[in-house]
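PROTEIN FOLDING TASK:
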Amino acid sequence: MLLHIPRILDADQVAEIRRRLEASDWTDGRETVGPQGAQVKRNHQLPDASPVKAELGQIILGALERNPLFFAAALPLRILPPRFNRYTGGGQYGFHVDGSVMRLADGSHLRSDVSCTVFLNDPDEYDGGELIIADTYGEHEVTLPAGDALVYPSSSLHRVAPVTRGARIASFFWIQSMVRDDSQRRMLFEMDTSIQKLTADGADSQATLQLTGVYHNLLRRWAET
């Protein structure tokens, strides 16, 4: 499921993150991928050990906690601390699939079910840089306003097109969902949003209650915690 989530970050948060990033030291993005990824990755990232990365990541994690649409779509169990990247001067990342299991700082591991990109500058600041995701319906090109996010299955084949003008700046991270199967997450998301709309429209309360019960019973059946 590809989902655009608007306004994960407000304008002040974006401005603060951009200000801190502009004063930061970046490293070659190939340092954080394996040999296969290094062949197609051309960008810069904040080093994993950077205290700025940790501080800015907390801003994003706090914003995610307050966003009900993100929770409904991802059903997060664990989130890898957000990372930050920058593409300039033809920088790109060729087609790849995200790693399936990622190591956390405490030595534990996270299964990547859902990928998320939070855009940190507006599309008119750069040319190219589209996030291109391939699925059975073809290739989907995505460029979003600053502060907006895209969530999509980590199993997706995807790439970032070359940036030919300016700089494309974003945060990216992975989520281990309580529900690992994408089709089941999609079904739960569609049911959840339908329940909310029925409630807001004043639909029959007994029928809405029954549908809510179905949602939670499916989540109980499929969730891993």
User: Anything to note?
Assistant: The longest strand covers residues 163-177. The chain has six helices and 16 strands. The chain has two domains: 3-177, 182-222. Helices lie at 11-22, 35-38, 51-65, 68-74, 182-200, 205-222.
